[in-house]
Amino acid sequence: MNGFIQHIPMTDISARRPELLAPAGDWDCVRAAIENGADAIYFGLDTGFNARARAKNFEVADLPRLMAELHRRGLKGYVTLNTLVFTSELAEAET
């Protein structure tokens, strides 16, 4: 080997399974993602700062219940924060 190319055995590559990440805007979507084999879901909160601001989003108060349900089923949950956050909004985005 020349030091620049690393040999990765095919068994290492084929052993990895891609993560199925599903969007969820409400509890029905969460249930559908779980039932259809998602490994994780992503969702927005009703506080804004996500591109689904006009869609139904979860309330911050829903987070403990939502994450408990996901973790109980072996799924991960990701809160989306996919809009520009201006300096004047940083404190609000952190809460």
Concise description?
The chain has 95 residues and is of the alpha/beta class.
Describe, in plain words, how this protein is organized in 3D.
The chain has 95 residues and is of the alpha/beta class. Helix content is 32%, strand content 12%. It contains four helices and three strands; from the N terminus they run H-E-H-E-H-E-H. A three-stranded parallel sheet has the order 1-2-3, covered by helices on one side. The radius of gyration is 18 Å and the shape is extended. The model has no long low-confidence stretch (mean pLDDT 82).
List keywords for this structure.
single chain, 95 residues, alpha/beta, 3-stranded parallel beta sheet, 3 strands, extended
DSSP strand tally: 3
> Helix tally?
4
The helix fraction, in percent, is 25-40%
- Write out the strand line-up for the largest beta sheet, numbering strands in chain order: 1-2-3
- H/E order of the elements? HEHEHEH
Major sheet description:
3 strands, parallel
Based on secondary structure, the structural category is alpha/beta
Q: Average pLDDT value?
A: 82
State which percent range the strand residues make up.
5-15%
CA-atom Rg in angstroms: 18 Å
Low-confidence stretches: none
* Overall morphology: extended
Looking at the chains present, what oligomeric state does this protein adopt?
single chain
- The CA-CA distance between the termini, in Å, is 50 Å
Task: Draw up the topology in text.
Layout: H1 10-15, E1 21-23, H2 27-35, E2 40-43, H3 63-72, E3 76-79, H4 90-94
Parallel strand pairs: 1-2, 2-3
